[in-house]
């Protein structure tokens, strides 16, 4: 047997003891070294886990979001055409919205102003247009009352009153026109009175009746001094009844 | 901790489970520290490098795939590379002989002196080994790795590790004068800790 028999368990144990002692004395971590390292490393691990979870969630959100197609228009001409088309569409859309605006909508006043702005310039046609608009406003008021929409009712009747004033101002001194408008307003008063019976506490209806009544008085007063410029053709301006009524009678 | 448990912890840690990573740390921190401490100059270096190894492990864990390589071997390879990088950077690596001295404080002055002599002789004997032989001793005895893990850490075959270990032990016995039939009396340390060596 050699002095250093490789399979001698006693010698191997002696060596192992020496290595253990060396390891223990000079290599083992002392005190709180491992605790310090552990705290730092696990804090890093926790931060990493949070970041990974956040990234996963973001990825999931990105995956579930609808794909937005990205396209570009390289031609300047096409870009200009698209811009013009877009502007035209916007204008058309807005115009349609204004023209169809019901009372109470944000565009209603714009619509009323627009309708007033485009009235014909000739007196007969202008008064006829006023009368048509008055009927329209009254119809809107009736519809609003029917659906119990006080805001729309107030808006329609405010527009009606404005239209009464405009019509009274535009009618001039033609006896036939004055008589016809007076007759129309009298009919409106009947309708408004019926509305008031339905909605007795509605101030907008009272104001409309008041405006219409005062206009009738004005028209009657003006009719007394009216001059029969021309006989109404086919029942006065527009399609209304004969204008040979009160004004002319009053003037005689 | 058996390999199956380690593998389960690794899978859970890869999925972001911090507690699983804590389990891995608790299993390997002390062996990693001992391995690093055997190769660097000071305890503070060993502490810094141990921390660095686990942070690197945390970063690299998502890319870890077993493929026959034990996790311990993979982790010690990280430690080995960290040590090599540190030595390259600082160029102040001292041989194991002067690495650290921390003899027991409970022994009598005579016993402490005897222990210091024993440990110095061990340090000298280790210093006489080749680099590969010394690394095998560090991995197998100080870190407690199995042959396969040591082979994975060093990037060698298991047979090569066994051969290096055989020659290292023979060299150490000669340097320390441990002949056949030598007394198995433990050295004078009162705090000897037996490091489990997985054969």
Low-confidence stretches of chain A: 238-252
Helix percentage range of chain B: 55-70%
- Overall outline of chain B: globular
CATH class of the largest domain in chain B: Mainly Alpha
Poorly predicted residue ranges of chain B: 93-100, 188-195
CATH homologous superfamily label of the largest domain in chain B: Winged helix-like DNA-binding domain superfamily/Winged helix DNA-binding domain
* Helical percentage of chain A: over 70%
The largest pleated sheet of chain B is described as: none
The main β sheet of chain A shows up as: none
Distance between the termini of chain A: 161 Å
List the helices and strands and how they pair.
The complex is a heterodimer of chains A (252) and B (199).
Chain A: H1 9-27, H2 33-64, H3 76-99, H4 108-117, H5 123-146, H6 150-170, H7 175-198, H8 203-224, H9 246-251
Helix pairs in contact in A: 5-6, 5-7, 6-8, 7-8
Chain B: H1 3-14, H2 18-37, H3 43-60, H4 71-90, H5 109-128, H6 131-142, H7 147-154, H8 158-176
Helix pairs in contact in B: 1-2, 2-3, 2-4, 3-4, 4-7, 5-8, 6-8, 7-8
Structure report:
The complex is a heterodimer of chains A (252) and B (199). Chain A has helices at residues 9-27, 33-64, 76-99, 108-117, 123-146, 150-170, 175-198, 203-224, 246-251. By secondary structure, chain A is an all-alpha fold. In chain A, helix 5 packs antiparallel against helix 6, helix 5 runs parallel beside helix 7 (175-198) and helix 7 packs antiparallel against helix 8. The longest helix of chain A is centred in the N-terminal third of the chain and has 32 residues, at 33-64. The model of chain A is unreliable at 238-252 (pLDDT under 50). With 199 residues, chain B is an all-alpha fold. Chain B has two domains: 3-90, Orthogonal Bundle (Rna Polymerase Sigma Factor, Chain: A); 100-195, Arc Repressor Mutant, subunit A. Chain B contains eight helices and no strands. Mean pLDDT of chain B is 82; it is low at 93-100 and 188-195. The chains are: A mainly alpha (252), B mainly alpha (199). The interface between A and B is large, with 43 and 62 residues.
């Amino acid at each position: 047997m050699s002095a250093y028999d490789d399979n001698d368990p006693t010698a191997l144990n002696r060596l192992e003891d020496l290595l253990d002692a060396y390891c223990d004395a000079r290599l083992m971590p002392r005190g709180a070294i491992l605790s310090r390292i552990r705290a730092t490393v696990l804090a890093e691990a926790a931060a990493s886990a949070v970041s990974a979870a956040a990234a996963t969630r973001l990825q999931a959100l990105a995956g579930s979001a609808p794909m937005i197609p990205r396209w570009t228009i390289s031609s300047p001409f096409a870009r200009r055409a698209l811009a013009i088309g877009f502007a035209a569409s916007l204008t058309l859309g807005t115009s349609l919205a204004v023209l169809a605006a019901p009372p109470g909508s944000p565009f209603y006043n714009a619509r009323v102003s627009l309708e007033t702005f485009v009235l014909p310039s000739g007196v007969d046609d202008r008064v006829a247009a006023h009368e048509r608009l008055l009927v329209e406003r009254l119809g809107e008021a009736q519809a609003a009352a029917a659906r119990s929409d006080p805001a729309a009712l107030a808006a329609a009747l405010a527009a009606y009153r404005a239209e009464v004033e405009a019509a009274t101002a535009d009618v001039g001194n033609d006896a036939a026109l004055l008589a016809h408008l007076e007759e129309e307003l009298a009919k409106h008063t009947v309708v408004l009175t019926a509305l008031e019976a339905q909605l007795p506490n509605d101030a907008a209806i009272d104001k409309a009746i008041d405006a219409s009544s005062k206009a009738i008085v004005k028209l009657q007063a003006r009719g007394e001094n009216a001059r029969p410029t021309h006989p109404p053709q086919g029942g006065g301006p527009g399609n209304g009844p004969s204008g040979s009524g009160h004004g002319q009678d009053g003037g005689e | 901790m058996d390999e199956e448990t380690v593998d389960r912890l690794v899978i859970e840690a890869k999925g972001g489970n911090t507690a699983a990573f804590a389990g891995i740390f608790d299993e390997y921190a002390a062996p990693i520290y001992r391995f690093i401490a055997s190769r660097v100059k000071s305890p503070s270096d060993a502490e810094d490098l141990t921390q660095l190894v686990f942070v690197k492990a945390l970063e690299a864990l998502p890319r870890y795939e077993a493929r026959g390589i034990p996790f311990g071997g993979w982790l010690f390879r990280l430690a080995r590379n960290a040590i090599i990088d540190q030595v390259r950077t600082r160029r102040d690596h001292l041989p194991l002989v002067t690495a650290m001295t921390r003899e027991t404080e409970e022994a009598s002055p005579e016993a402490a002196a005897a222990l210091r002599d024993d440990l110095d002789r061990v340090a000298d004997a280790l210093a006489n080994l080749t680099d590969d032989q010394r690394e095998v001793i560090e991995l197998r005895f100080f870190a407690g790795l199995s042959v396969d893990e040591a082979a994975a850490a060093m990037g060698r075959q298991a047979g090569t590790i066994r051969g290096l270990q055989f020659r290292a032990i023979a060299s150490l016995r000669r340097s320390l004068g441990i002949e056949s039939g030598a007394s198995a009396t433990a050295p004078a340390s009162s705090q000897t800790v037996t490091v489990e060596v997985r054969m």
